[in-house]
Every structure is written in C-alpha cells, then in structure tokens.
Amino acid sequence: MKKILAVCFILLIVCTLPMSASAYENESYYKGLEGAVINVFNWGELISDTYEDGMLDVNKEFEKLTGIKVNYVTYESNEDMYPKIKNGGASYDIIIPSDYMIQRMIDEDMLMEIDADALPNYKYVSEEYRNMYYDPDNAYSVPYNVGMVGLIYNKTMVEEEPTSWTALWDERYAGKILMIDNPRDAFAIPQKILGYSLNSTDEKELSDVAQMLIEQKPLLQGYVMDEIYNKMESGEAAMVPYYVGDYILMKDVNPDLGFVYPKEGVNIFVDAMCIPKCTQNYEAALLYINFMLDPEIALSNALYIGYATPNVGVLEHPDYAEMRENQYLYPDKENMPEVEYFHNLPQETLHMFSQLWNEIRIYGSDNTHIYVGFALVGLAVVFFMVKKYITKRKREYWYNSI
Predict the structure, then answer these.
(1) Whole-structure pTM value
(2) What's the mean pLDDT in 70-99?
(3) Which H or E run contains 160?
C-alpha cells in the first residue's frame, strides 16, 4: 500500500511540473546544436514570455529543449526592422515581418529559402495561409499570426460607438486621438475613407491622403506604437487605430475599451517567420521555426498575443475554444469587414511615401518654433547685409561728392 501511495505521489508531482522537452513532438529533431546562439528579431509583445495562466516562456522552453541560447530583440514596425537588416548593421537568424515587407525583402534578395520539407511541424500550417500572394511557393516564409486593423475606443470618452474611420477627424475628441506611427498603416485609413486602394501608386491619391493626415494633425495627442498600451489602458486617450490582437489584451486591463471594424474596410495582414541572409546559424533558425509551429508552443503564443492563428493544431485545441469563438478574431460572414492586404510598392512610390510621411510628421510639430527661429535669424542676417550695403553706398556717394 505504501509503494502504491509513493508511486501516486510521484506521478502527481510529475504532472504538476512545468512543461518539459518531452512534451514536444520530434524531440530528437532538436538535438545536435547545443551551445549554439540564435538571434531573433520580432515585434514587441508578440511572443509568450511567461509561465502564468498556463502559458509558456517560449524562448526559455526552446533553450531547455535544444541547448541553444536565444538572444531576443524587438522592433515596433516593419519600417523599423527593414533598415536594420538592409544596412547589415546587425546579424539576425529569425525575423518576423508582415506580408508586404516579406514581398519586398524577397524582391531585394534579402531572405534565405526555407525548405518546408525540413520542418516536421509544417503540417500544422493551415492550407488557407499557404501559397500566399507574397510568397506563392512557400519558399521564404512560414506563417506566424494573422490579424486586422480596427478602431479601439474608450466607451466612457466617446459619445457613441464609431462606425467610420472619420471618427479620427472628429473635433470633439481633439487632443484625445492617437494615430498609429508607421506610414503604411497611417496612410491606409484616409485611403479607405477616400475609396482608394491600399496599394495605390497614384501620386495625386497619395497627396490627397497626406493632406488628410496633415489636416488631422492638430487634433492628435500623438503618434504612437507600443505606447498605445499605457495610453489606452489608463484612459489617457479616447481612440486609436490598431491591431485587433492588441485590443484583446488591452481590454483585459481596461474593460471600458471597445473595438469596431469601420464600414469603409480594413487592412488584413499575416506576419511570418523568415531567415534573413545575414543569418549566422541557418540550422538553428530552422529548429526555432519548427519549434514555433509545435501546437503547444503555438497555442501559448496565440493565447498570449491575442491574434488569430494559422496553426490548425491550435485551432483544434480545446484550450483555444474561447478564442476561436471570438468574433473580432474570427468574424463570421455577417460580421466580416471588407479587407485588403498590403502589397509591396514600386521604389518610386516608396520614396514618395517616405517624403510625404516626413512632411506630415514635421508639420505642426513641437519643433515649429525652431523653424520659425531659423527663419527670423535668416531675416535678421539679410537685414544686416542690406543695411551694411546701403551704408557703404552712402559713404561712397559722400566721398565722391567732396
């Protein structure tokens, strides 16, 4: 009887221990690179990093399983990530860009090919997210998460539920409106209001969009990315356009927050794992991608970051049932907004985007007084030079008249 009780006690302890390597599929697949180092570059807030509420610290689990050290660095936007890879200032083994940026990096020969046959867990990638427009042969990317952009608002600060993107130009909320701080997402909102494509290359249309953003500038509290969390959770701002997964996390902190997909339509996106050509450890990168596809790891990430998942192992998991029924993440046909993906744009259009975005950010900024100061200094210099010239001419005239 004592032996039976002892065995039961041991089993109870084992069952309550944190998840170990044996919980993951194809354990032997991960052996052989002990002592290696992998550098991962990902969006902020886009990976499970806790053992609370049944979730996992994904990078720690990978280190325990493989013996590979993970150096993890974050960025706020695709446009923040791109130049760091393009300029070669740092070496990363894994990056997780969005669809249009993946398309651009493929076009510019910045990514390594990924052999899906070398990833045992690739079988969990939903057919819906294979052969996507940005990587039609699944040669350079493996889907990580899926989301849409909508309008987050504070129900206690907004008089009625907004239905249109034009709410972000409503003067009633001047000083309480936040705007997303990257050009593709920011331009997308006026583009939808004006009925333009998110992938327009028309110079007049882009100028129209920039003008709308300039007109909005006096109403803004500021342009933000990850700072959105503090501002919306604390009730410091009334509304902001942002990603649905982040809304779900923010609402847990501030129940007063609401969310809508505006009637004009929204951007839908896929973030995917890629291996840049600057990688120093391609084999370790493959292990990391396969690990992220494991249903237990993908489940933890999906629960933590709040985005829709392209992983069928997660969709079928009982612990994901509540999220799977969430109409913001998985709208039914009646609630599904009109959606459009971003595509990579021609270089001349990207250059115009950059110029217009700089003009928008400078217009009406807190540095306006600096530019005014420079102008006044310039006028003073001109005045001094004119005065000096007139004085000189007077002296010459006086001298010649003697």
Answers:
(1) 0.84
(2) 94
(3) none
